[in-house]
Amino acid sequence: MKVQRTSLNGVLMITPNIFTDYRGAYVETYNKHEYQLRMPPVDFVQDDISVSRYGTLRGIHGDDRTWKLVTCLWGEFYLVVVNYDKSSPQYKQWTAFTLSHRDDYRQVLIPPKFGNAHLVLTQWAIFHYKQSTYYEGPENQFTLKWNDSELDIYWPMKPTILSQRDS
Questions:
Q1: Given this structure, which CATH class describes domain 2-143?
Q2: Which residues are known catalytic residues?
Q3: Shortest CA distance to 57 belongs to which of 130, 144, 150?
Q4: pLDDT greater than 80 at residue 103
Q5: Which of 11, 28, 86, 128 is most open to solvent, judged by the fewest CB atoms within 10 Å of its CB?
């Protein structure tokens, strides 16, 4: 596996080990020993998947204690990560990645105090993430507006499907 730093301190891009042959590919999406040798020691306790259709935007959500390891299992989405740590010199700065099952199943490690959102760019996409805490509902998270003019986030297209919370 390969680990790279990104423009936001603490956010890492990970390319997992992929084994290919005439049958297709085998992807090791997580190996606790390997990941803890190369990343901060995070104890993941919950895995989640969201399946969304083209034009769906989910987020920007986060909290002050959860690490997330995000992977695109199928399709393609545009992932935005926003630093929402008020004590950080990078407060309200953001970065973005296009994640796809066709692009080495790259992953993004998102620290606590960072929000994330994803916008689906293909007919369907499967968003997978490991979390270091158990989900306790939206009342325990912060939500940032996807189109907040102060953040001035670039989106490759205007979302067509949003939840009430994300509107």
A1: mainly beta
A2: 61, 129
A3: 144
A4: no
A5: 86
